[in-house]
Design brief:
The protein is α+β, with helices and mostly antiparallel strands and about 120 residues long. It is built from four helices and six strands. The strands form two sheets. It has a three-stranded antiparallel β-sheet with strand order 1-2-3. Strands 4-5-6 form a three-stranded antiparallel β-sheet.
Length: about 120
Amino acid sequence: MSIRPTEIKLHQTSRLLEVAFEDDTRFQLSCEYLRVFSPSAEVRGHGPGEGVLVTGKEKVNITAIEPVGNYAVRLVFDDGHATGLYSWNVLHDLGVNQESNWRNYQRRLAEAGASRPA
């Protein structure tokens, strides 16, 4: 069963997407975080272990939020990426797991010899 958002608000200046859900959780998700964890096949691949490490998105922003039926939104990023559908469950999961996802992302960057500004 899908948990539905009650509010989605883009803060373009701070590059944050604020999402509130019907279970009273509220998350502030950076555009960079949403971009590097895009649910698109381009980022996640088509099967286990096929995902790519997305880098260089520290200043990426969202230019549009497009509803997709009653179950998702398409986020359009200013780097041209617009293929991922962020279902309500995906957005909620990204919020709940934001800290651990970000730690894993930073670990993967270090393992790849990549870095990002703090």
